[in-house]
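## Example pair
The file below holds two records. Each record gives the amino-acid sequence first, followed by its structure token line.
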Amino acid sequence: MMYDVIVIGAGVVGGFVARELLHTKLKVALLEKNNDVCCEVTKANTAIVHPGYSAKTNTIKGKMTVDANENFQQICSELQVQFKRIGSLMIATGEKGIEKIQKKYTIGTQNGVKGLRLLNREETFALEPNINPEVIMSLHAPSTGVVNPWEYGIAAVENAVDNGANLYLNTKVEGIDKEKDVFVIQTNTGKFKAKYVINCAGLYSDEVNEMVAHPFFKIVPRRGEYYILDTEAGNLVEHIIFQTREDDTKGVIIAPTVEGNILVGPTAEDIDEKNNNSTSLEKLDLIKRVASKSVTNVPFHLVIRSFAGIRPRPNWIKKNAVTGEIEFYEDDVKDFIIGETKECNNFFNVAGIKSPGLTCAHEIGKYVAKLVVSKMEKPLKNENFNPNRKKKIRFNELDMDEQKRLIQQDRTYGNMVCRCKKITEAEIVDAIKRNAGARTVDGVKRRAGTSLGRCQGSFCTEEIIEILARELKKPIHQIEKDKSGSFIVTDSVK
């Protein structure tokens, strides 16, 4: 199959790269090794839309983040994704913390972050009365926001497919060759051809790069563990609380979510396995201890879930000047790795996209699309490009008259499947039938919002399985919870 551009990896960044490419009349494909999109780095992170006071002005991050933040509401409106601009406080309890905050304020001011303020103790407590009494100063960034990361990424992929991209799931790239000016991509499902290839493979972007070029960066998986507190704890804080530590170790974040829960974490642990998202009692207990340095009396008895995400921490590779062998990895790459590979024309790396990668995903998409299209001769503008996602109905947010009207049109809006979050059968069916739609129980969760409440799917999973089986025309025992092979029902008892 021949394409103009193939994007490897259908996470939030790959989704936005594909979406932005389709402003031009191009034949674009997204290759994803998993059975769903946005189910690795994208699905498990802190979900924060950063203001832009951390990365220096001369970096890609520094140049992108402020614009990305300012444009975030518009993109979420186009894609019908929930976004809340709730602001953040970075707090300090000692001299080192004050120095860090003042440095962030200086960088943020240089980057053009709007509304930044240094607050004294009294001003900080006026905004957040549950803050640690030892706080001396804070940095207030009103532009900071929160979003549902997987909803945001899925919406980008869906909109790309709506605009003509072809999505191939369960398609793992195993090798890349170049025949004259055409890339031949070998996958477990067959060969694909393209004039341009964009590597958005996240945790595996170093491995994909090495299919066409010598290694120059290495992705080190960094695991972060989190707690989710029930919505009953939702009034604990109103802002995202960042922490500066006097001992130079990493502080945890306490953040409201768009669903009204409280997120606490993450830890930071470099690991060997890129797919090891297990949690440990030791690290989760560490979160509890460190969180108390930010907010007093965090109600951990209201925990409804713990989970871990893996971040793609990029390191530069250093080689022995004589032997050419890799000796060790140097310090972290301080910026995103974005650009055409010097050893291979028309192959572009988009790698090491850790924080603020979620914030910058749309800007990265625009930037990469511009790089690729600039190499083409007279590309035609796609006059039919539609940035707006198909209308998404959130039944529980409608007034009673509108709910009644919908039920009269479609009685499945009257069947409340997920009682915790008040998600109806009609919304689940819609999540399945959309382009890049759900194929698993967790796929439904990531699109419709089921199983995110207090019971974590205890009461709705069975009915969701039945709906998936019906709509996908599959037997129940072939319905998976999440990744390939995660079957829930294995046999019947009657």
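Second record, same layout:
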Amino acid sequence: MGSIRVAQLGKAYKQYPTRWSRLLEWVLPALGLRHRLKWVLQDISFDIAPGEAVGIIGVNGAGKSTLLKLITGTSVASTGALTTDGRISALLELGMGFHPDFTGRQNVVMAGQLMGLNVDEIAALMPQIEQFAGIGEYIDQEVRVYSSGMQMRLAFSVATCVRPDILIVDEALAVGDVFFQQKCFERIASFTAAGTTLLFVSHSTGTVLNICTRCLYIHQGKLAFDGAPREAIDLYQAALLSERDAAPAQLQVGSGAPPGIDFAHAPALAGSAGSITTEHADCVAVRFVQADGNIAHTLQVDQLVHLEIDYRVKRQLSDPHVGFKIRNRYGVVLFETNSYCMQRQLGQVEAGGTLSVRFSFALTLAPDEYSLTVGLGNGGYGSDSFEEVLNYLHEVRSFVALPDPDAIIWSGLVNLAPQLNFKKS
């Protein structure tokens, strides 16, 4: 139970040049077709086994929501085949199906019946639904007076009042307070542990990493990647950077460095899948340096470290900026910044020159293995964006953080190094 099989799935909509073209096509079909097809999805194929937690990511308009509507049966495919096995519960749009003139309780009854529950079953589940939603007396008021967060609370509570074979969530959890979101994720985790198949669409890459073991990356209506969430997210972020870049045609998005490449002797460093390179600059060195100037291959937590990044610049850069990102073994971003966000100007760099930067910081991380992503941009604007992305290398190197024998005993992701003061009376 809870499986999904998609084979060469496609969805197209008819587009007419004028308002009368549709009428003419209906009334006078002998005159020929007057529409063109706008393909939202094309040639999508994948299998999802029972119990898998699968994320779906992509830029707005990529076709993610359309794919979910096809799976749930609220839209019909133009081409291909799709089969599902098991009861599906879906949150595709916030409060979809709720009637604004009916009370929350009345909408719960109607939504429950659409899910296949009878009146007695809904009545037995009502106390649990009310308790989980936590909207108090609003349960007996018209939905039109609900906030978006209250609608999400009630919609999620109804959709998950009985564990489904397949649970589909499309960005609904982006609304609401953090405490309710935690309740939702706990329920989702309990469902997947019990065998529920999860399809989760979100722009929150951290959430996808935390709850999904597999990820589908949809790009321009096609399945661009199916695999580990970490690699899918890197490709997705490369697409976002390309969209914002002043010259996206110059960007080359890599599928990953060849296995066994010797970064130390390569003329230009390479990153993992989703890395971006251009002809305007090469990253030639990324290293941690100790206080004595020697390169450090292992680091000790809580100690001051120096991260040095070198670029070979092939054209004049008027406003270059360099940044770095540290991620743990699960792909979660622990820290990210750049010279622009630090309000530092590096100054103009001439063609044929080099740019070397050094970041110094205390390594207040838990002992573990981490990866490093580095990037070079030109022309900062807004809060954290750049007019051009010149070089962006995912996981350009990894490093190991060793424990500090003199530090306090602690657990978590970051050492806050608390100071303890107390008094007794």
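Notes on the second record: Helices lie at 19-27, 64-72, 104-114, 119-133, 148-159, 178-193, 205-211, 229-244. Confidence is low (pLDDT under 50) at residues 255-266.
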